[in-house]
Every structure is written in structure tokens, then in C-alpha cells.
Amino acid sequence: MCLILFAKDIHPKYKLIIAANRDEFYQRPTKSAHFWEEDGSIIAGKDMEAGGTWMGMTKSGRISMLTNYRDLSNIKTDAPSRGHLVSDFLKNGLESEKYLSQIASNGEDYNGFNLISGTVDKLHYYGNYQNGVHEIKNGTHGLSNALLNTNWPKVEKGKAQLSEVISRISFETDELFEILRNDIKAADEKLPNTGVGYEKEKMLSPMFIKSENYGSRCSTVITVDSDNEVFFSERTYDTNNFSYNTVQFEWQI
After folding, report:
1. Distance in angstroms (rounded) separating the CA atoms of residues 189 and 212
2. N-term to C-term CA, the chain
């Protein structure tokens, strides 16, 4: 994932609302969200190159999601796959704070990442470009390729638009997908400086990224209501014309 927008415990109907885009090279082999063969309680997409995932959930309500931290000056070619940080949490029974504390003990082994893990009722955050594990407070949050709630244009715009949609008791999940399809690039004066140069910074600035060989591959919307009814929907894009296929799952925790 390269953009995760979410609202925790601020809506009268939904305890958790998530809208997220996964950005990746178009040629990297990927399987859309499905029940995993090796563990039928897990619903997630799968990176078929390294075997992990960027976002997933279990039928019991465990959830984990990841973004990379952008720092091209500090890339380790022999670093372990970050996608397994998500899938390992979904497979084990550790409480999220303990799990993330264990990850933090050797966080420097990985290339930069941000990891949110927990349950639909309690989430924790750890990024290996900061210190400590933090419980996520109630509110609207955004995470891209810097730290949680860093005020990048796509994060600020996404949080504002998410807040507007969920200010109503009733809204359509298509409205959340529409937020994620926003491909307007940030103004030059608002671009972050992450060391990749102006052209790439501009290309990476919108919520929905399009380029010759890299961009937004799928969008995911998850809602969990006060009765623990889960709606999980993923759109996977054809990067030739950006039409999409949709998979949906609904269950009660």
C-alpha cells in the first residue's frame, strides 16, 4: 500500500472505515484478494514474487496493512520482504503491541516501512524511521510513504475527502473508491522532497498514480460496523485502460 486513509471510532455506524491504494510496478506478479489456501481464515491479496501481502484481514477481525517508507538513499539489496510483516501477524496470535515491539527490535534489517496491525477495535502503529510502537487514537488518519499523518498533499487531501464522505450517517462505498481514483497531481510548491527528483516527485504525488511502468494497482475499501459486520471490497485495475475487476467479501466477526 502507498496510501491508507482510515477512520477509527468516529462514525455512528462504523467503528472502522478504510480506503487504501496499493502502488507497485505493473509487472510484479500479484494475486487479488482471496481466502488463502494455507490459512482459510485470511483474506488478502498476495505478492506472488515474495509471498507476502500489503493488506489483509482475518475472519476473526485481525487486520494488518503496510506502506513503504520512501528513502532511496538507504536501500538494502539483501533486506527481507516487508510483505511478510503483514502476513506473519495475520497468521499468529500475538497481540499487536507485542508483535510490533518484536518487529521493532530488528526493524533496521528492513528497508523503510510503516506497519499498522491490530484488531477492528484496537490498532497499533510502528515505522522503522521512528522510535516506539504507538496505539492509534480515535479519529481520521492518513499514511503514505512517510510517517503516519505526515502532511503530504495526497494525505491531507485524502483525509479531508474521507472526513467529508463519512460526515453522513449513510454513504456509499463507491464514494470511497472515487476518492482513491483521484489522479490530480500536487502543486509544485506542495511537493515533498524525498530525494527522487522533481519529475518523479510530481508523478508520485496524486492519490492514484499512473505512469509507464508503476502506479496504483488496486484499491481496497473495508467497513466494520458496530455489530462487527465486515464489508471488504477490492478493485484490481487493468493498467492499460484502468478498467477494473472487483472482488467482495462480507462476514460477521
Report:
1. 25
2. 24
